[in-house]
């Protein structure tokens, strides 16, 4: 058995870094690197601690086809998207375990990684800022918040740590979201014809579990079938409302892992040190280079040209055009060419 596995939500790290006071203004040859530095800090720290690491990346989710407006209104930042693409490409080249699957979110991949590795490690730590990840918290799995607005959660503090003034019983976070909805994901609270709504339904669900003497051990309580059984047997739901609950379960709970997918972590010994040093040097992350006791690589002119070109594409809107996205540049004269070269740090 191994000591520790650290699983990192790449999108959460890059987004948090891009909006943090310390990293938000960082750029190198005109290309923003603050989000990358924030992500690399977690990856490199995990490797330096002799832990195994997995980095999970988002793809367009199948959930967008299940409900109108799923995660609608979330701010799209092309700088974040670009850095995530860079992170996936260059960390993979460094032989860091990076996983991304079409149709699935990082939350799904993280859940699969926990399921496949929970018996192989004394401790698993999930780094992110999304309450959906709390579905994975159990005896040897904890959630480490990367945001000051979110609390780190263990099995022992689960009930009181998630939301101030509320009790969410171990580990019913996904059931809670089915009934109470989620503002961030644009899922409204469930409202029944019998007059019950949101948290009232959740309280009835907890009463049902106790009356039926359902065990609150992790594998039992996180089984989505319990929510559908409650909807079918409680007498509170109409047929249409039971179908709504089924749809919400598919929306909220982690997707089933497709056959043939195996998720394993990478240790520092397995990393391609030359490639990782090059990657950290390319994006000017001296702190991470120092942490691993590497020596910064000298960039070739082609590397510098690549960074300048990527920065230019973000400024002109070419990045979005290449991906068939709506361009956010309204005035092509809103920047000067020298802006690409004067903000290096």
Task: Give a topology summary.
Blueprint (H helix, E strand, L loop, with lengths): L1 E8 H9 L8 E2 L2 E2 L1 H15 L3 E5 L21 H16 L4 E2 L6 H12 L3 E8 L12 E5 L12 H4 L11 H8 L18 H13 L6 H4 L3 H9 L5 H14 L20 H10 L3 H6 L9 H16 L1 H5 L23
Parallel strand pairs: 1-4, 1-6, 4-5, 6-7
Antiparallel strand pairs: 2-3
Helix pairs in contact: 1-2, 1-3, 6-10, 9-10
Give a quick precis of the structure.
By secondary structure, the chain is of the alpha/beta class. It is 41% helix and 9% strand.
What does this structure look like?
Helix 3 links the parallel strand 4 (52-56) and strand 5. It contains 14 helices and seven strands. With 345 residues, it is of the alpha/beta class. It has helices spanning 10-18, 34-48, 78-93, 106-117, 158-161, 173-180, 199-211, 218-221, 225-233, 239-252, 273-282, 286-291, 301-316, 318-322; strands at residues 2-9, 27-28, 31-32, 52-56, 98-99, 121-128, 141-145. The two termini are 42 Å apart. Helices cover 41% and strands 9% of the residues.
């Amino acid at each position: 058995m191994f000591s520790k596995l650290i699983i990192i939500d790449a999108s959460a790290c890059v987004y948090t870094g891009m909006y943090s006071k310390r990293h938000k203004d960082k750029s190198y040859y005109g290309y923003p690197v603050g989000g990358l530095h924030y992500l690399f800090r977690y990856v490199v720290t995990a490797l330096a601690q002799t832990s195994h690491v997995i980095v999970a990346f988002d793809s367009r989710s199948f959930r967008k086809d299940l409900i109108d407006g799923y995660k609608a209104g979330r701010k799209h930042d092309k700088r974040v998207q670009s850095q995530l693409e860079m992170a996936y490409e260059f960390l993979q080249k460094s032989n860091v375990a990076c996983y991304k699957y079409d149709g699935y979110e990082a939350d799904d991949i993280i859940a699969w990684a926990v399921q496949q590795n929970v018996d192989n490690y004394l401790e698993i730590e999930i780094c992110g800022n999304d309450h959906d990840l709390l579905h994975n918290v159990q005896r040897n799995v904890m959630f480490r918040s990367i945001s000051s607005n979110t609390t780190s959660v263990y099995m022992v503090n689960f009930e009181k740590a998630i939301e101030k003034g509320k009790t969410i019983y171990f580990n019913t976070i996904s059931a809670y979201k089915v009934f109470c909805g989620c503002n961030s994901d644009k899922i409204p609270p469930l409202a029944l014809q019998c007059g019950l709504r949101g948290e009232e339904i959740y309280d009835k669900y907890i009463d049902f579990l106790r009356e039926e003497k359902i065990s609150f051990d992790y594998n039992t309580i996180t089984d989505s079938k319990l929510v559908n059984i409650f909807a079918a047997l409680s007498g509170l739901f109409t047929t249409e409302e039971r179908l709504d609950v089924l749809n919400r379960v598919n929306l909220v709970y982690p997707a089933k892992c497709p056959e043939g997918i195996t998720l394993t972590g990478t240790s520092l010994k397995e990393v391609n040190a030359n490639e990782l040093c090059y990657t950290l040097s390319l994006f000017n992350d001296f702190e991470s280079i120092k942490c691993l006791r590497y020596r910064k690589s000298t960039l070739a002119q082609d590397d510098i040209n690549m960074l300048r070109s990527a920065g230019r594409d973000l400024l002109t809107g070419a990045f979005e055009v290449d991906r068939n996205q709506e361009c956010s540049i309204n005035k092509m004269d809103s920047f000067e060419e020298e802006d690409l070269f004067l903000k290096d740090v």
